[in-house]
Design goal:
Layout lengths: L12 H14 L9 E5 L5 E5 L3 E5 L2 E3 L3 E3 L5 H5 L5 E2 L2 H4 L7 E5 L3 H11 L4 E5 L9 H9 L3 E4 L2 E7 L6 E6 L5 E4 L3 E4 L3 E3 L30 E3 L11 H23 L3
Parallel strand pairs: 4-15, 6-13, 7-8, 7-13, 8-9
Antiparallel strand pairs: 1-2, 2-3, 5-14, 10-11, 11-12
Helix pairs in contact: 4-5
């Protein structure tokens, strides 16, 4: 993590999580481990099942389950994940300053991340599966005007190359069948994210992509006492610092709700 406030030299994600946990425990948080597998928000108390067997009842629930990056499904991609393969250019681009990288994607997010990488890297190889991009015209024009971004049309990724770290990527032209190896130090996947909201379907209002809808200016969902924070409801910013900020908002919203409930208001 290079862009989170308070860490001038950066910090590994797992290490930051340990710091957060220790601080939460010091403040009195009761931390338990398990996977939430089912909910029932039909009445109060709200019900959440952990690991399909343990039931937790609560007066308020904050959902901060995040979103998972979509991947290409390559074995080499997963093998080198964290060793040059990434789904977040803003998070990890710093590590590839002055090097060549590749990015897969054709939407606004891919275009935005390619532009971000172009400011750090000597060259950005942008791999697009079709003969056109889904990104807005404005974003496309910015990509085309950036000299160190090279777009490969009608191209699929066959394999990410390297043993302990990314050393290149083998691509294939869909029309000619020709394979090419591009030497790169980083490989970024920008084909979208999937919010981890499946167990809340049927209870909470969501958009067409599955992101939980929250009321403007708050973290409130359509069910009183249930709040959503971070990437499970944010498909625009998707940064650790913005997720932390919305987590604070959710905590304040939940605290106000519980205080009002205690007073019978």
């Amino acid at each position: 993590m290079e862009n989170y406030p308070g860490y001038p030299d950066g910090v590994q994600g797992p290490e930051m999580m340990v710091h957060f946990e220790k601080q939460a425990v010091r403040m009195g948080a009761d931390i338990r481990y398990g996977l939430a597998t089912k909910v029932d928000f039909s009445g109060y108390p709200l019900q959440v099942w952990i690991d399909e067997e343990k039931l937790i009842e609560a007066d308020s629930v904050i959902i901060a389950t995040g979103a998972s990056a979509k991947w290409l499904g390559l074995a080499s991609e997963q093998r080198l994940n964290g060793s040059g393969v990434s789904a977040c250019a803003v998070c990890d681009g710093f590590f590839f300053r002055g090097k060549e990288v590749a990015i897969v994607g054709a939407g606004d997010t891919a275009a935005e991340e390619a532009l971000y990488l172009s400011k750090l890297c000597t060259k950005v190889h942008m791999i697009v599966r079709r003969d056109q991009m889904r990104a807005s015209k404005v974003m496309q024009e910015r990509v085309f005007r950036t000299e160190n971004i090279q777009v490969y049309w009608n191209t699929e990724t066959d394999e990410v190359l390297g043993d302990a770290k990314v050393e290149g990527v083998r691509i294939r032209n869909n029309q000619t069948g020709e394979s090419t190896v591009i030497p790169v130090a980083g490989f970024f996947v920008a084909i979208g994210h999937q919010p981890n909201s499946e167990i809340f379907k049927g209870w909470l209002e969501m958009d067409e992509a599955g992101y939980i809808k929250t009321q403007s200016g708050s973290t409130r969902t359509n069910i009183e006492g249930v709040y959503a924070a971070g990437d499970v409801q944010d498909k625009i910013y998707r940064q650790a610092v913005t997720a932390a900020g919305s987590g604070c908002m959710a905590a304040l919203d939940a605290e106000r709700f519980l205080s009002m409930k205690a007073l019978g208001i």
